[in-house]
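Section handout 9: paired folding examples.
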Amino acid sequence: MGSLINLIAIPLGFIMRLIYSWVGNYGVAIILFTLFTRLILLPVSYKQQKNSARLQLINPKLAKLREKYKDQPEKLQLETTKLYQDENINPYSSCLTSFIPLILLWGVLAVVYRPMTYIMKYDKAVIEEAKAIVISIDDDPQSTQKSLDRNSMREELLIMDKLLQNPEAFTACIQDGRISFSEDGEEESVQKLSAIDASFVPEVTEFAKTFTIGGTNLSETPNTNPSKNSSVFLFLLPILSGLMQLALTVYMQYMQKKKNPDMPDMGGMNIMLYGMPLFSVWLAFTVPAGVGFYWLCSSAFSFIQSVALYAWFNDERVEKIGEIEREKAKQQKRRPSMMQMMLEQQEEMMRQQNGGTPAKLSGGPANRVRYSDDDGERKLSRSEMEEYNTAVIREARKRMAEKYGETEENSAPPANNKKKKK
């Protein structure tokens, strides 16, 4: 999973770095980067919304089928599948495409949560040593270690926050070239620092100056006590993030119920849907403000996109789309795939050669067979066999043309341009 996330995060990190170098502010870069990722996912969201709207439109037909075949599950499944084919709807397409945003989301989160890796381009060894310094200079090393392990994906933001709180101790460890640990009265252990250098602290400090939005430092962790926050927005950020997620959930549920009044109550699922935004508020108070700010931006853009897509896919437009898709389904029935036509032609030829009525040959007897030495009939020559097979193919194509409404000229076999030997 880590390799897949890195595979996605590396190109996204390159884009994020370009945006940051252009605007010079990480808070603004998060806004533009979130907008960029939503635009990437717009085609997937459009297809999901289109499929969902069309499924909701045929719900009355599905309800009639369920009522009609309530005691015949196999017949119900067959008729439901037939209805989907007639409407040219794939009921599972939304499930398949939903994995694409989920996979991309992990890459986006990696870029936002790891600015030292994807923006400042520090390698893993430097970040690991910075993490060790944070643990060693803290008053409660064990608690800090657990916090970093528990928030491994967001550890770079936590490292930045700790560095800004105590830059002098951080610098002293780097200049000393080593750090020491001691746990529960055990013998002190020493770790040498070889990857990190003296430029790390001023570079991260300078970067942190741009890690702001509206004067609020996004590397700081919000506090539940309003008076202990450096700004009002820092305290409000987790709350605004949760409210925006809650508004998105309420709106989606309202529109789904409006489009499909017969939609069953999800019961326990509603607890999770409405509980997650509240949980995110608590979580945003335990991590740097940059995380909550990204959640706020992402939820806001998602809300705007959902409103726009629901307005676009109104009942009239969905009905027109349905007519187009139904016509496509009819055309697919009238014009089978090339593989299907070849198979049917082959079956027709086999039927005629193995007991069926052979096709009439132009310029020859009406009922020739390939050979029958036991019955004393004359064996066909090679040229006669070619003529016979050509006639069989022609007859099969004629039957296919009649079946699918094509002209015989369009389905005729290509002319044989071979020259006969004299």
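Moving on to protein 2 of 2.
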Amino acid sequence: MLATWLIACQPAPEPASLLWISLDTVGAQYLSLHGGNAATPVIDDFAKRAQVYDQAFTHFPETSIAHWTMLTGVYPEVHGDVPRLGDSEYTGHTAAQVLAAAGYATAAWTEGPTMHERATGLDRGFTSVRNAQTREDPAPACGGQLGDATEWVNRQEGKFFAFVHCFDAHTPYTQGDRRVVHDRLKSQFAADMPSILPIRDGREAPTPEVLHDAQLFYELEISALDAALAPLLAAARADTVVVITADHGESFTPEYPFNHSGSLFDEVLHVPLVIRVPGGKQGREDRVVGLVDVLPTVLGALRVPHGQPMQGVDLGTGAAPGEVWAMPDPTSTRQRLAGPLAGPLVARRTPGLLVLGGQDGTVSYDLAGDPQHQRPVPASLDRSAHDERVAAMAAYRRAPAPRAGVLSPEALEALGYVHRSEPVR
């Protein structure tokens, strides 16, 4: 008992390394950590020794630009059309560049064509980048790369930054225990998903059974991925800052099923954010925070200077941004509509309130009384301060030369980034 007490009384080591895990398409509301149906015991247990931000939101519901936002600490508008250019317009430093300059070993593991370095330019600053694009049926968790990432972390003797991105919860659904799912789900959600594309693209209306089954299979994907993360989290040394988050969530509403890029509602914007800082705060808090705040927070914890403007805040200092601005993917031809609005162009999320603005007006949702976003109320929205902050980054923008990407139009459509526009019958 004395030995246990002495160990408990030892001071925590100074933060020295960073493990950053991004769970693609994982919405906070679906995790057991936030009261959802997807059992995530590994993340739940890890969160007991970390800070959980219950009101964390993405700024952009699409993979590549959301990741550029979190890995640079600047808003999506600064990055431009990353999927088209294969790179960001932002000329400032990424997390990997800042940490590499500070003497960190850097490596990244990503999954899926939308995160390939030729499709995003996110290889800046990483000494090693590995991308898995195979989606076998059933597929290994995180493209089979978690073992490699765990071994790399275990080999590091000095400071390191490991970034691990897992595509498992994104369609097509290929993981999970199919024995608990009836035959309709197996046929409806085969790996190539031929039967749900018309529903996702708005050409057919989904039945309640299909929506239920889709969400169930999605939650099974999340649970399987959670179990697979255990060795990697265990490999993180006591002096390692650990981040677990997501780029965006997923919609299973009848209005916008199996999709995310055109929605500004909470099922897509609300993401998990768990940050463990050695010797730092533990518990839960409900400040409204954004993915733009993650990089300033981890650099503050690591005491690494960056010398460039960031639009997020260091949450470790107690700063409370109090609002998150978000915009939909402008290339998405199908959006989840907001009451009378033909297509929301911007969202402002504050505690208990969602305000959506479009070319034809503005509406708000009181989330305390209307958590399902069913009763829009006419509102006003002043985005001038936000626009000024974006404009202030003009000196850090330059159109990159287009790079040869890895995404064919067919691949983009299969992943939900190109949509047909026929109305629902």
